[in-house]
Amino acid sequence: MRILLSLFLFITCNQDLYAQVFRIKNGHVYFHSEATKELVSASSNDISGVIDISKKLFAFRVPLVSFFGFNNPLQQEHFNENYMESELYPDAFFVGKIIENVDVNFDSEYIIRAKGKLKIHGVEQERIIKAIVSIKNRVINVHSDFPVLLADYNIKIPRIVYEKIATEVSVTVNAVFEKKK
Amino acid sequence: MRSFLLGIFTVLLCIYAKAQVPFHKEFWLNDSNVPIRVNDICYQQNGYIWLATEAGVFYFDGKKFNTIEDNRKISATAIVADNGKLCVGFKDGSIGFVENGSIQIKKLKGVQIHSAINSIKHSGPLTEVSTEEGFFLFAADLSNKLSKQQGLSDDYVYADELVNDKMLLATDNGINILERKNKSIKIDKINSDNGLTDEIVRVIKQIQGTDMVWIGTQEGGISILHLNNKNVQNFISCKPWAWGQVNDILPIGKDEAWIATERNYLLKVILEGNSLNITPYTFEGVAFRKLIKDKAGNMWAATNDGLMLITGLYASKIELDNFQLKKLAAMICDQQNHLWFARENKLFQLPLSCSNHYEVKAILPAEITCLHLGDNSHLWIGTLGKGVFSYNLLNGKLQKINNIPDLAHGHILNIESSRNNLWIASLNGVDETNPNIAFDSLKLIRHHSKSSGMSSDYIYQLASDNKGNMWMATDGGGVCVFDGKNYKHWNSKNGLKENVVYCISIDNKGTAWAGTISNAIYRYNGKNWHRFPISEMTPRDNVTALKTDADGNVIIVSEKGVFQWFQREKQYRTYNTKLGMDIDTTSTALNLIATDNNMNTYIPFEHGFIVFNKLKVPIRITPDIQINAIKLENERISKSRNDFSAYENHLTFTFSAINFSNPEKIFYRYQLSSYNNNWVYTNDNEVSFSKLAPGNYKFKIQASLSNNFIQFSEDEYSFKISKPFYVQIWFVLGLAFLIFSFGYYYQRIRNLQTEKMALLQKERMIFEYEQLKSQVNPHFLFNSLNTLVSLIEMDADTAVEYTVHLSDLYRKMISFRDRDFIALVEEFEIIDNYMFIQKSRFGDALSMEVNIPESFFKTKKIVPLALQLLVENAIKHNVVSKSNPLTIYIEANEQHITIHNEIHPKISKEKSAGLGLINIHRRYSLLTNQKVNYGIENNRFVVSLPLL
After folding, report:
1. How much is the pLDDT for B123?
2. What is the DSSP letter of B440?
3. B290 CB-contact burial (10 Å; exposed 0-12 / middle 13-18 / buried 19+)
4. Given the DSSP bridges, would you call strands B246-252 and B554-558 parallel, antiparallel or unpaired?
5. For chain B, N or C: smaller number of CB within 10 Å?
């Protein structure tokens, strides 16, 4: 955890003028789980993140309490208290490196793989997540869809709501990055 | 374009999916069937399969999973076996070795590892560790870390592979080739610029004996890297790669490999020139992480749920829809690798290449009994009651053979070719015929029957060898062979146990094999038939089909399952229900077995056909055996200990045979040499010996798949139980020495004593002699007699008294002389007599003063006549006169008696031998350690004798 945070801070605080560090201007995270009986979905606009294009590193963070749009307040309460334990594990992280080369100087579209540690609910899992990166006027648009298996992150679903929550949750991330000034 | 490709691809997938598939079996690591993710597996040569899992380290013997104790409860992520030494990498970066059933964590010197270990290799002193923070090398006291800082293209290293002095690292950013150049390390990088399809390279595996390696990537599939020119060879069949992330590659020989992928697939790839032939096998929901093979040809996959056995290297199956095993009567493979089979009167064709679609090709007017391939394009078909037909494989034309009248309505049992002739077995013997070019008529050459010399008219199977001999499996007549002129028979009278032989097959060396109505197969070595019974079968079971394969092994079908006889190992591998692979029922019809062009063998079973693949790599099926633990009085001890004391004589051996194919049919036997030299057969995997006598022992344990133990594996343990200390040689020798020296000493003392006694005796005799001599001394006698004469004249009474004293003196001297000691009182009786005599002579001039405590007279002892002698000496040597009276003093204390007198030496000395004092001295020295002292003190002669 400490390593992750320091890496995050390192990238955030990096003042290297030559580094091509991009920061999220606005971003959106959305998840939905389609269980047989109930569809759960919520989203958050409170995603922060940086990409260092020259070093091919990245870091994302989302506070779990920032998710909104649940079916009802009870669901949100369950989400934060029973499943995510947001007080204990307030944030979800994804920190790592970009496999493919990205050139921000030309407008173009790439499919890249981001490899790193996805940390949710205090459990760290190594993931390779594909993303579509499109560059226009040195602004980076990132879009990614990926599944999260609840079992991988030690998120236990009580038997009584088992049919209401799928074991797999689909996550969609959209973010616009601009060069840090 | 893309959708078009996808469409084609889907079609291809469908075809692939329905081809031959290997048998497989899943194993749960625990009894509760909870999935445990296996991260890595390795095969210990001739031993266990070891598993590094989320729940620690396990090992597997084919039957049971065992855990290795590790209190730290950390996931094991990598494992490797090197010459029996097991090296494990953990999630926290620690490295351990399995020793005596537990994990010993290795203390790393120098650089430390902080992240999960992706892969570990160990050879001799060198440990190579791949992690996400770099590549580590440990050797004795040296350690080194290679990462981006040292010039690697990425920190994340998946695995390493050593190929001809080059170290290849698979990383997130291509391949790094490490090579020693002079004294530094040169790093070459292979990435997309060199043609790599994906930057993330997860697997590198050498193609044995070449400088080529298989490369497995995250999403770009597989390629081959040629190390000589650093060229990456990509394959069209891998584009697009539809089988997901490659997790492992298992190279088989030079042109085949099996690929394990993250999602659902095992792929068999075969290199054919510049193209790669891919056969995918789907396993829904399975993530294959690692793939290895054992010596018996089994492939083992580490999966998300546990362990999976895959038979793909030696056996597979063709599953057919709506397949009916019942009433299947005959089968054959043609040159185009189509499998033809017959049910009732229908002839079916199944293309073997890549389909499971079979169809009816011909319908005959009668039930089909047998099929035989005439040439490339014709099939001979035997029927029940309608004789023989020829079937044109190219145009499907069916032709009944009518020109031999006996055959036209015959019941055909078997058809075989030999030397261009077609042999047709029917109910009344065999017709040797010659077909015409058009395959529409037959010319009868010869009729073989009992009357022509055959042992039976009823032939189940004909088999020709390459010398032109025709072998026949007969009903009631055993095996019969016709060499062109003569028949030769073997039956229960000369070599076979049974007369009913159902099947016969000739292997590529010309050796005949026969299967009979009983539970055994026979092999003819040119002289004799050897019988190999099958332990799973009872004598009432039959061998219904038998065929030799390309490797000299024999495949046998019976109602008890399918067996594969390994000629080199003289053991059977069994395929039956117990395998848990859905091989339950096989056909009881005779001779349902076929071999294709590639020497694969086919047998029908309830779901279709079992295929025994021609082996690409040699396999060995003999079970391995290991002594797992040795217990001394129920305490586990190290195997390296083999010296025990006499009381450590209760030993227990735990052993387990390792067989992954037929774990249920292992036979054990053991021997403890010098305890019992017979082999003891057992089913237990533990044996105890108690109260072992001292000696040297060797415990041998053997395992085999056959109870005759022609071939077996063996493990042994030698040990020694020492003798108890009291029978040990040092103790015996010491004791003997002690007894000897004691005896010797005793003897010596005794000798000394007898010598002393002898000496004493001698001294006494001398003394007695001297004494007697002195007593008959003429002076003494003369003086005494003179005194007596004068006494007689003057006083007759005193004379009588004198004479009494004189005689008393002599009597006492004689009676005491041979005693060693006499009481003081006795000695004084002599002295009194003596003094009386001398006083009669010297009158008052001689006196004696005795000062001895009264009690001493009876208790103290003295050498006889010693005092008398001293008194005598005093009188002898000194002047005794009125002017110089002599007073002799005798005194005593606890130890000594002292006699002393003033010295007034006589001028004329009496003649004396001078032996008296010396004799006393000697006699005392022989009897006691106390000394006799004598000398002159203040003009007095003093003698002191010890009192005893």
Report:
1. 86
2. S
3. buried
4. unpaired
5. N
Q: CA of B37: which chain A residue's CA is closest?
A: A152
**Angle of helix B916-927 versus helix B729-775 axis, rounded to 10:** 150
For residue B219, list chain A residues with Cβ-Cβ distance below 8 A: 113
Nearest 5 degrees, angle CA B570-CA B590-CA B511? 40
Provide the pLDDT confidence category of residue A164 given band limits of 50, 70 and 90.
low
Q: Do B218 and A128 touch (CB under 8 A)?
A: yes
Please calculate the CA angle B239-B244-B248 and round it to the nearest 5 degrees.
105
Q: What residues pair up with B82 in beta bridges, in sequence order?
A: B85
Tokens matching residue B870 = 């001293």
pLDDT at B701: 92
Q: Does B439 touch chain A if contact means CB atoms closer than 8 Å? A: no
Average of per-residue pLDDT across A11-17: 48
CATH assignment of A2-179, among 2.40.128.110, 1.10.600.10, 2.40.50.140, 3.40.1190.10: 2.40.128.110
Chain A: give the shortest CA distance to residue B700, in Å: 49
CATH number of B35-146: 2.130.10.10
Contact criterion met (CB below 8 Å) for B297 and B330: no
pLDDT confidence of A59, banded at 50, 70, 90?
very high
Chain B contact set for A97 (CB, 8 A):
172
Q: What is the predicted pLDDT for the residue at B184?
A: 85
How close does chain A come to B72, measured CA to CA in Å? 19
Task: Give pLDDT, residue A51.
Answer: 92
Q: Where are the alpha helices (DSSP H) in B776-882?
A: 778-794, 796-816, 824-842, 856-859, 866-877
CA distance B553 to B567: 5
The rounded distance, in Å, linking the Cα atoms of B202 and B503 is 51
The reported pLDDT for the residue numbered B776 is 53
User: Is B156 in Cβ contact with A99 (below 8 Å)?
Assistant: no
Confidence at residue B844, expressed as pLDDT on a 0 to 100 scale: 84
Polymer length in residues for chain B: 948
Residue-level pLDDT at A165: 67
Q: What is the DSSP letter of B74?
A: -
Query: pLDDT class for A1, splitting at 50, 70, 90?
Result: very low
Please enumerate in sequence order all residues whose Cβ is within 8 A of that of B266, keeping only pairs 6 or more positions apart, or say none. Answer: B22, B258, B259, B260, B280, B281, B283, B288, B291, B301, B310, B312
Give the per-residue pLDDT at B304: 92
Give domain limits for chain A: 2-179
Q: Which amino acid is at B151?
A: G
Q: d(Cα B331, Cα B311) in Å, to the nearest integer? A: 24
Residues B594, B595, B597, CA angle at the centre, nearest 5°?
A: 145
Stretches in chain B below the pLDDT threshold 50: 1-17, 913
| Length of chain A (residues) | 181
Pairing of strands B886-892, B846-851: parallel
Q: How many CB atoms lie within 10 A of CB B674?
A: 12
Report, in angstroms and rounded to the nearest whole number, the Rg of chain B calculated over CA atoms. Answer: 56
Neighbour tally for B451: CB within 10 Å: 9
Q: Does B39 touch chain A (CB under 8 A)?
A: no
Query: In whole angstroms, what is the distance from residue B403 CA to residue B386 CA?
Result: 13
Residue pair B109/B100 in contact by the 8 Å Cβ criterion: no
Query: Could you say which DSSP state residue B208 is in?
Result: T
CATH of domain B624-723: 2.60.40.10
For B775-946, CATH number out of 3.30.2000.10, 3.30.1380.10, 3.30.565.10, 3.40.1010.10 equals 3.30.565.10
Under DSSP, the state recorded for B373 is E
* Residue B770 near residue B916 (C-beta atoms within 8 A): yes
Q: Can you tell me the mean pLDDT for A33-50?
A: 86
Kindly indicate the confidence band of residue A160, based on its pLDDT and cuts at 50, 70 and 90. low
Which superfamily does B318-572 belong to?
YVTN repeat-like/Quinoprotein amine dehydrogenase (2.130.10.10)
